[in-house]
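[Meeting: bench + compute handoff]

Bench side (C.D.) handed over the final construct sequence. Compute side (W.E.) agreed to return the predicted structure before the next meeting so the bench team could plan truncations. Sequence as handed over:
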Amino acid sequence: MRILVVEDEAALRQGLVALLGGAGHAVTALADGPEAVSEGIAGAYELVILDLMLPSLDGLEVCRRLREGRPGLPVLMLTARASEDDVVRGLLCGADDYVTKPFGARELLARVDAIERRSRTLPGEPERLEIDGCILDLGRLIATRGESSEPLTPREAGILRWLYRHRSRVVSRAELLEHVWSAAGDLETRTVDMTIAKLRRKIEREPASPRIVVTVTGAGYAWGDP
């Protein structure tokens, strides 16, 4: 697997790189939360191993932002916080698994292998979508129409991923707030409308008559590809 390790303790970070690399994985290691968000969204990683205690941006917030940009990217939290409340918070913010320090090398590798098996049984999320003459490169956060390209924000990419994943039905504004913003009740639904209006100016041929992100009156939004 292509694994991103995010751990600010240098000795442990180097040990994880050696352990995972020795097991045949391709490993990139970082110590900074904001950098981990950018790298995790833009890079072609298949797993993030994420420390909860990080400088600048803690692991919970890093996990939430990764969920915004790449909802299908597995996250394994690795932390000294072992209370039930801490575990529940980690899982609720989007982590797929939670390993507490100190941990055994065999246990960690077994959990990584389990995540890899689950990932292999699920259909992969496309990183490049083409619709109505627009190429959406969600991995690189770029939308291209003809000779013109526009940068996408991680949240805009998250909206597109969620709509495409659920393209067989209408997605409500509240659902987008919960799964793309990781917010339930903290933001107003007009936040979604404003973000989608900006997104349409980047990706639609005619923003006033959208064909990619379609409004369903009284219900929410839908992926426009029939």
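W.E. noted at the follow-up: The chain is about 40% helix and 20% strand. C.D. will use this when planning the next construct.
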